[in-house]
Design brief:
Layout: H1 2-20, E1 30-34, H2 36-46, E2 54-58, H3 67-73, H4 78-81, H5 95-100, E3 111-116, H6 124-143, E4 158-162, E5 165-170, E6 173-178, H7 191-205
Parallel strand pairs: 1-2, 2-3, 3-6
Antiparallel strand pairs: 4-5, 5-6
Helix pairs in contact: 1-2
């Protein structure tokens, strides 16, 4: 039901945007998901309910499941936790189908994974592992000629310090750590650092 709600919302936004355009071009969606919403964003693409031009995952439930997340959740009071990780304890999406739901692989990065450096729920190691899993899948699909080749699709990702963040890029997937931020990167004091990194990612989607 939640996945269908997301698709309905995306359809509404897309139609609204296209009505405002005077050149008749189609609107392209960049899907952003945080925490369990990030898991839901991946699920929508895995079920092939929509197509987007890019996917941004911020402290998201990883594609391979949230067993590690549940360990932290067990320490939280019931009124706060609401048992939200239970539906995503085990692998719940098909990574290759997620990639198939994203267009434009031949023209730059299409997935961004953002981690808070102090996130205790969706930790940096979990987010780095998720980014690498997507990179591996991209490389496999390129070799199988099922998606167009993107720069560095088969090579290793390179780590580089960027301002207060640490980034790695490769195989069309960008991984960013916002140092000092916790799970709610968008609310923490470091939110501007994270916003700049996301804006940079979006600009390259537009060819800037």
């Amino acid at each position: 039901m939640l996945a269908e709600d997301v698709v309905t919302g995306l359809r509404y936004v897309k139609e609204k945007e296209e009505k405002l355009r005077t050149d008749g071009t189609a609107a392209e969606i960049t899907l952003v998901g945080h925490s369990s919403g990030g898991g839901l964003a991946q699920l929508v693409l895995s079920k092939q309910l929509t197509r987007v031009r890019a996917l941004i995952l911020v402290g998201a439930i990883p594609c391979f499941g949230s067993a590690e997340v549940a360990e932290f959740e067990s320490l939280m009071p019931e009124y706060e936790s609401l048992n939200w990780p239970i539906g995503m304890l085990r692998p719940f999406i098909n990574v290759r189908r997620v990639l198939a739901g994203i267009s434009g692989w031949d023209s730059g990065e299409r997935i961004m994974v953002v981690a808070g450096g102090l996130d205790r729920i969706c930790s940096v190691p979990l987010m780095r592992r998720m980014a690498q899993q997507y990179r591996t899948a991209v490389g496999d699909l390129v070799k199988e000629k099922k998606i167009d080749e993107t720069e560095g699709a088969v090579g290793d990702a390179e780590e580089a310090p960027v301002e207060k963040c640490t980034e790695s890029r490769g195989a069309g997937v960008r991984f960013t750590i916002v140092e000092g931020a916790g799970h709610h990167v968008q609310n923490d004091l470091q939110r501007d650092d994270g916003a700049r990194r996301i804006l940079d990612f979006v600009k390259q989607l537009d060819g800037e």
